[in-house]
Amino acid sequence: MSDKVQEILSQVSRLYHRYGIKSVTMDDVAHHLSVSKKTLYEYFDDKKDLVNQVLSSEHSRNCKVFDEILLLKLNAMEELFQIYKSIKKLIHDHNPSMDYDVRKYYPDLFMKVKEERRKTMYENTLRNMLKGKKEGLYRKDLNAGLIARLHLYRIENIVDNELFSADELNSFEVFHELFMYHLHGIMSNKGRDFFIKNFEKFQEAAE
Fold this sequence. Notes:
The protein is an all-alpha fold. 78% of the residues lie in helices and 0% in strands.
């Protein structure tokens, strides 16, 4: 992907997160970029192609953030809290109407994004739990594959049911409680001791 296309996707992503997808036309995008629609269509077939590339670019960017965390060579619990801070920022910057628009107007893209997110979340959760078990920070009897799927199922069903309002689903409080629920369910005694000793540092992630 050329730097020019990447810059366009980055700017359009900001537009979508601010105003939603449906309300932002190709004319709006061209005007925002200070280019003609003809120039815009040199890079994208139509609006659906643009939306698809924006979503793919965002997914790749988020994966890169998590890959960079792995390079820090932290223990499993420290990794979780770095991920916690990264997701907190994503929630803060996210506009829920963008997800709504993708689901309603581009259902095939919505399913594609959902499957990509599901695969990434499952693999990262499983890898972290296997690492935590090896380090003794998570329970030895932990069925990592099963818990990874249950964690994913819990998150997806919170999003897809009517028990929570849209505001609650996009609030940091819900994510925080879900994160802590998951963590306390998998920690070993050694992990709990590490958590208590490092509580103040971990608390900084929530601020």
